Amino acid sequence: MATLLRSARNARLLRFLAVPIQRSGRSGRVVTNVRRNCRLSLDAARPTAACSCRYLSTETDLASEDVSRRQPVQQTKSQQRQTYEKTLNELDETVKRMGRITKTKVTKTFEDLCNSGAVTSNLALLLIRCCGTLMAEVPAEERTEIVHKIWEKLPHLGIEFDSSHYNALLKIYIENEHQFAPTEFIANMESKGVTPNRVTHQRLIAAYCLQGDIQGAGKVLEFMKNKEMPITDSVFNSLITGHARAGDMENATKMLTIMKNVGLQPTIDTYTSLMGAHAETGDIDSVREVLHNLRQDGKDIPDKNLMILIQSLAKSGQKEFTEEIIGQLRVGPRYIPDAINLCLTLVTQGHDDTAFELLKTFQKMREQVEPVLAVGEEFNQGSFFVDHIVKLNRPTDNIKNYLQEMQSLNIHSFPYFVALQSALEDNNQEYAYEFMKIIKEQGRPLRPHYFWPLMVQHWQNGNAEGMKEIIRAVLDHDVEIDIDTFMMYIFPTIGGEAESLLEQLQEIGVPESNSLIGSLFRWEVAHNRLEKIPKLVKHFGTEKTDFSQFRVSLIQAFFRDTPVDPVVNVLKLIDNGTISVGTNSTGITMLQMVDEVRTASGRNVGPKFQELFEKVHRQGIKITASHFRQIRSMLDQRGLGHLKGPLRKLINLSELNDQMDANIDLLPIQSVDPDKLESHYEELKKKNMNTRGALRRLIMVHAFKGQYDKAMKFKDELLSSGHEATGAIYAMLIDMTARLNRVEEAMQLKQELESFSPDFPLDSAKYIKLAQALTLHGRLQDALDMLQDMKDRSVPLSELTDTNVFHMLNNVALAGQVEESRSLFQKCIDLEIIQPTPNVTSPLVTGYFQRGDLKGALDCVIECHDKYKLLPRFHDLLVKLVEAGNKEELQRAMDFGSQAVGEMNILYDLVFAFLSAGKYKQAKKIVETPGFRGRTQRLNWYSKKCLDEGQTERLETLVDITQDLFGCDRDQMYMFLLRLYAKNDNWQKCLDAYARMQEEQLVPRDRTLRYLADVLKTHGQEVPFKVPERTVNQETDNVEDTTIKYQRLIMNVGRAGNYTEARRLFDEALSKGCELSSECHTVLLRTALQADNLSDALSLKELCEQKSIAIDAGIEAGFIFTGIRTGNIHESEAVFNKVIEDGRVPNKMAVRKLVTYYEEQGEPETILNIMEKYQALASEVFPFYKHILGAYLTRNEPDAALDLIEEKLRSANESATAVGTRSFFHKMMEKNLPLDRVYSIVDKSISEGITRQGVDLLHALIDVGNTQKAKELYQKYPSLSENPGNIVRYAIQESKAGSEQDPQRLINLASIITDPEIKEKIYFYLMKLYENNSDWQSALELRQKCLDEGVLVSELTLKRLAMMLKRNNQALPFEEPPETMEYYRNMARQQRKDSSVLELKQEEKSDSSSDSSDSDSDKENTKEQSS
Fold first, then answer.
1. What is the pTM of this model?
2. What was the pLDDT predicted at 1252?
3. H helices then E strands: how many in the chain?
4. What angle do CA 528, 533, 536 make, to 5 degrees?
5. Dihedral over alpha carbons 244, 248, 253, 255 (to 10 degrees)
């Protein structure tokens, strides 16, 4: 080919055009699969600087795991691959989003790739392509120099060039209009063994044509003809340009005719090339004629083609006509990035005015953009223009004129800031000061950090005098220097101690401000000169010394080699008030010190903290109980539990004594057995000794446990014995009565307290609990007065105040008292008890939900946004609106949301609402809306919500409908799905998800594959892929970094259920000296228990105890579960007894599992022993007797069980009716044991007014299907029907969602009932059970049965039946009630509340003291597994 170009004779051009023609796309491009091979599509030969490139893509998955940035050493292949993928992704995304790329980005990327050794053929190709018009801010000559440097370096990095690389270089030459010798280029290409292809020849033609060399272009065409290569319209476009630059416009125009003769129709790009040729020759009339003809023919001229014409006109100096063409731009899709690129190109070429005229067209977008802007957001454009003209050092007068006009035309609200930033980035001091002057003149504040870029150079060079000149400039501009400026730039540059720094700064006029003083303190502390602190305090005085300004520096100094004594001395100055601090600053400082341990892991900080606590104690420094609790918790979490002893000495004992109720957990009485304490009290009474202390403790303990009768009994004894009750005792009693909703007693105690000790301060929590109790009892005004009294008494607020107020408001709202909750909230706001937050405002909306008033709920949300810029429970509201089908209010919510959070966010809210409501088709339609883009944060939020709530179907649907969503992180979405499947122990679905990932051609991240492999291995399944190696980077010497990586790996693997691998990593980390966190230990321990590896779990537990790592209640319960499952019951007993010995209440599920085991073993005595231990600590009722009776049956002693029942019934104990006989009677029937004594017990108990055992027998008879006996029993004892709640409670239990009970039980129950009102309730729950079972046929038959029996069918039941039939596509044989389900539910609740006949809500919850049949055991087993 090179020989042909040198030797072929000249010939007329037309004879070479008789070659095969290949039609291309509408823009003159041959269509290729650009995603598969990362090849450029064939653009027209003319450089199109204005056109954005949208072709940078690759088949390689762009999502990768953590990738190191720059490595000074050669990377491994895995690291190189990760670096390659990350770099390719960054470049691709930058070009897609911006349509351009900066010089810095290209050169920095290339430098990083060279250092990492991660350059590949594709990356090399990508870098070359970035050196053309994509780099719009760089002159063409400089772009060519950059590409040459890259080209020369690539072979040394192991890159072998192919035709695609040479074609890319040719394209860059064309875009940059670089003059080169095509013959030499092609010869060099062939000498490297690379064969030119069709694209090469097309671009060679374009290169010749740009130089006006038609002869050279003809040689290439002849060669293409001989090789029968197709000619596309892009070749003709180049020839038009070539003829024009050769001065032959006649032949340039004839190209259109020739194209038609050979079967090609001229495209818009062809006409654009022709107009550009006319523009270069100055023939404006011809340009107008072409434009006119195109429009006459109805051909649309896209903006990008007009921009190419604008560039040609600007080059030829046709300013007026250029402005005319700019006026014809229509601002269509992709206009902004294309226009920005053209503006930058024009400025680079020196056509600033033309670029500015183009910038003015951006105003056409204002009407489209402003409606979707968030509140307070401005539509500012042109920053790129300002930045470019400043960095090109245009005259300041010109720049100021542009800025002034931009502001006057409302293109940019304040472009001077942009100009200042650009000048500072360019280190242009003259321009920076000029723009600062203008900013100040316009009344805008100047900030200290504006001067940082000017300080950097002096700071790097240690130029103290240069830094002082900058400081003078700062002062000249009346800017106060802040702490960051002093610490980061001024002090390090000038150097010296605080005294010397202060003297030098005052010499140049720096005032003695709070910032300077705080900086000097921080400077001394940062350099371990803590002994200088007292001297500085003395110099500046207490009032000017603010500890908050150097607290962090003091904490950092503690972890360096600073001795403890100077730190203690500073804390002493804080404690005695020499240094100005906030409240309890000593405790806060030590709290933050302990918190910092996690970032100082690996250091031996234990002894240093012990020394600190001991020396602080010797100095008499105290901390609050609240800070002690927080520090104690952190010490446990960080493996420093052995320091809790020295820390306890720092508690302020006077606070414990004054606030005993709030700090009972820190007092010795917390661990005292109330029975032993009462015995001690009785002994003191017998010996006629002082009983005041014992009585006070008894009152406090019983009040803390909520045992009202005993607490008040001992209070009366205290007063009757001549002693006075302290304010702390009254406060504790008030708290107890408020918690128990004993309003009258609480108010009486408060009055007694005010009479006894008017000045005693109740804390905020008690006031809030009193206000809640008063409101729930209909005494709103008293509640408001209570809050006012709290404010009037200046009661200090705590960190829990917001939480306490939330619970108050929420409990009131759940009772449906909307107006009351609003009044309480407004009162708290007015009194500044709380600040509005999403959490504390949510009960306002909850109240409307409880009433079914969705319109009111929306009004409330809008009001909260208008007042506080908050959107409480907005997602829940949208879900309810969708479920209710309330289109009017939903539209109103959407309109409001668009203004509040923006159109894209409200669309996401609507998608999530449709998903939550099960409206999957509607959700999909929104996702498929043009312009809807992936937002990782929003998608992750809802995916996490589905994961936490176990909503598999919703998450699967979300993954499906976002498959083609641009910007969606598919790997992350599938990761959430895998985690949910693993949570449900469904490894089959995990494999299905992996198959779907392959169908999507998605390359999973390594962490995703490892997680999936762990799940499969846990379930004993074969892994169908190569598992990426899980390694920790060994190249670093930083133990802390290695520790963090190991911890992350161990916890991730452990949570995936792979104990073997997690333990291997754990042992490996310990062998390398890593100090693993307490969380890491507990995760591994929990995983061992889940794997039933009890021996390892015990060794890990011992290790945790050695390191003082706290074992939480969940893990203790896990030991009990695992011990039972593995047959090691003695270990379960040991854990249970240890918890009891520590004075803690054991986990309820674990206790249930333990007593169930002994029931199955037939050991009632053991269960009785467990009961005594449990009830000594717990105030909550637990159905032990159910299991004791069952244990007697297991060892075939039914008489002993019946003796126990009779004994309990004979006692006057409150538990007489809570023995739990239903399941016992049921089991006796199953074993066909005689029931004579059972009937005798029932008969006797009913005669004494106790119906519980009769009801249990009735339920048991229905359970076993003995309807006749049940009917006889029900008719024999009328008292069983006097409380319908007993019957309805059974119906509720049988109808619960997820229940597997046969409907026959409810059918049998209804058959023995004659009262139509009770039967209506039973049929109501039977209908609900049919709905749970999706049995619409039986439900329809039930409605007919109600009609036949004359039983009322409520509107709620009819609505439920209608919805069931509609879901199953069945016709409705009745008129559907018009309102929503929620409406009828709320109406039914209100009717029950008003009538006060059946308190069904309480009945649903009242199975805690009953045996609640075997279904509860199934639920407990499920909970056990999750625990």
1. 0.47
2. 83
3. 80, 0
4. 135
5. -90
